[in-house]
Design goal:
Protein name: VOC family protein
Order of helices and strands: EHEEEEEHEEEEHEEHEEE
Number of domains: 2
Shape: globular
Organism: Streptomyces pluripotens
Number of strands: 15
Structural class: alpha/beta
CATH architecture of the largest domain: Roll
Helix content: 10-25%
Largest sheet: 6 strands, mixed
Strand content: 35-45%
CATH superfamily of the largest domain: 2,3-Dihydroxybiphenyl 1,2-Dioxygenase, domain 1
Distance between the termini: 21 Å
Radius of gyration: 17 Å
InterPro entries: Anthracycline_SecMetBiosynth (IPR052164), Glyas_Bleomycin-R_OHBP_Dase (IPR029068), Glyas_Fos-R_dOase_dom (IPR004360), VOC_core (IPR037523)
Number of helices: 4
CATH topology of the largest domain: 2,3-Dihydroxybiphenyl 1,2-Dioxygenase, domain 1
Length: about 230
């Protein structure tokens, strides 16, 4: 996953204090992006927006052995390619796609960078929730693309689907919401606000834990999950 930000330095200050992340120097990841690390393990990347009109957002990338073939399957299933797969140096091949309801997600074909160095630990990725207007259609679309990864008997759960209206106003577009694990949700919500972020949705109970939705100091939304 990565965050597209107007000010990467401000993002480093916010997430560094919030999660205890450290950061690589520009050029060690790709372009002007920086790796975010926790105890040396890669947990995310922060990237500068190449166009100010782009949204400030966290993007989750689905792993695939063939980004080009997956892009064709997405289009054939009623989705669309937003950014066709392109090489990211020797790290891998990336792309952006949207499902039939407009929710955007990334594609990642690994080269030298396989993905998360750590997840499910405090301060790292723990869950992605798709908020959609049509849960049944989303199950069909993503189940057809990623059946084994999403629904396999041996898969560790990372992904869920819910109706937009369960948490957000009815007019909210379909979207993916990245969740970071929190040891103490109330404490970390206080830190978000001290650092210039805001609480978008106060804590609520889900089948996978207690969740709150926040925005960072630049407006990127994410969730905090206490298992």
């Amino acid at each position: 996953m990565d965050a597209q930000l107007s000010d990467v330095e401000a993002g480093k200050r916010f997430y560094g204090e919030l999660f205890g992340w450290t950061f690589s120097e520009p050029g060690q990841a790709y372009g002007s992006s920086v790796w975010a690390r926790l105890d040396g393990d890669r947990v995310a990347a922060l990237s500068p927006k190449v166009d100010g009109r782009m949204p400030t957002v966290w993007t989750v990338y689905f792993a695939t052995p063939d980004a080009g073939a997956l892009g064709r399957r997405i289009a054939g299933a009623g989705g669309q390619l937003v950014v066709a797969p392109f090489p990211v140096g020797d790290l891998g091949t990336a792309g952006l796609a949207a499902d039939p309801d407009g929710a955007v997600f990334g594609l990642w074909q690994a080269g030298t960078h396989p993905g998360f160095g750590r997840r499910h630990a405090p301060g790292t990725f723990v869950w992605a929730e798709l908020y959609t207007r049509d849960v049944a259609a989303a199950n069909t679309f993503y189940g057809g693309l990623f059946h084994e990864a999403l629904f396999g008997a041996d898969a560790e759960p990372d992904f869920g689907r819910a109706d937009v209206g369960e948490v957000f106003p009815a007019e909210m577009p379909s979207h993916f919401l990245t969740h970071f694990r929190a040891e103490d949700l109330d404490d970390i919500l206080g830190a978000v606000q001290r650092l210039g972020g805001r609480v978008q949705v106060p804590p609520f109970e889900t089948s996978y834990g207690r969740v709150a939705v926040v925005t960072d100091n630049q407006g990127a939304s994410f969730a905090l999950l206490q298992r």
